[in-house]
Specification:
Length: 255
């Protein structure tokens, strides 16, 4: 933020600029990619491109998403991660074709998530990670098509059982939340054998600070894991020039 608390002046997006940012995905979808453009306000001109299938406004400085976003009725994929958004509009519930919604790394609170999210009956992936949620929205229990949910790095102290009862849920990330006991999250995951932890954002889609934080956490985990499972050091035979009898039993591996 600029000195004096003023919001920095962002890049102005014109209709021509937006049109030039439309890409065709490998599966033939139209994606409007306005990521990393220094945008501070939602560009109204893109409402004239509402026939796109995917919209990427990630890694900008956007603070508010207007109700008019519901005009993107063809949208299947919406990426808003790494902005300053603290509230989603109620009209987002009208975007019933959405399959993927990423609002990771914003300023969202539980109160900033509208109940209309329960109208996204086709949604398969939701990423709420790196926000300020202190409870899991009850609306998630109505989303029966959910496959993946990211709730990592929030302020959660419990996970409702209704989340575990989602019939198609396969991947859930609830890491780094202030649960009263560390084993609580582990017990919750263990109770649903089909689940596994994951990061829903690929490295290429993360901003610098987020990527660094995730890499540090991953490196720490790998270090602990390697210490626990380190194999015994095998003796080296520097003068051995032919495979021993055990190696001969698996010639393909030896070669």
């Amino acid at each position: 933020m600029a000195k004096g608390g003023k919001v920095p002046k962002g890049k102005k997006i014109t209709l021509n600029v937006a049109r030039n940012c439309i890409k065709i995905t490998f599966d033939g979808r139209k994606r409007l990619d306005l990521s990393k453009m220094g945008i501070t306000t939602f560009p109204k001109c893109i409402l004239r491109l509402s026939d796109v299938d995917e919209l990427d406004l990630s890694r900008n400085m956007i603070r508010k998403i207007p109700d008019s976003i519901s005009k993107f009725q063809n949208l299947r994929w919406l990426d808003l991660h790494s902005n300053y958004i603290d509230k989603l509009p109620e009209s987002i519930g009208q975007m019933t074709g959405l399959l993927y919604l990423n609002v990771c790394n914003n300023k969202l609170t539980t109160n900033g998530l509208p109940v209309e999210l329960n109208q996204l009956k086709n949604i398969r992936t939701l990423n709420f990670g790196l926000n300020h949620l202190d409870s899991v929205p009850t609306t998630l229990a109505a989303l029966k098509e959910l496959h993946e949910v990211g709730l990592f790095d929030n302020l959660l102290n419990s996970i409702p059982n209704s989340i575990g009862k989602l019939p198609k849920l396969k991947k859930l990330n609830i890491k780094r939340n202030p649960f009263p006991k560390e084993e609580e999250s582990e017990l919750f995951l263990d109770s649903i054998k089909r689940l596994e932890n994951l990061y829903l954002v690929e490295e290429k889609d993360l901003c610098g600070p987020c990527l660094k934080k995730c890499q540090q956490a991953r490196d720490k985990l790998y270090k602990i894991k390697s210490m626990a499972t380190a194999p015994l050091r095998k003796p080296l035979f520097s003068n051995l020039v032919s495979p021993n009898s055990m190696a001969k039993e698996s010639q393909e591996d030896w070669r």
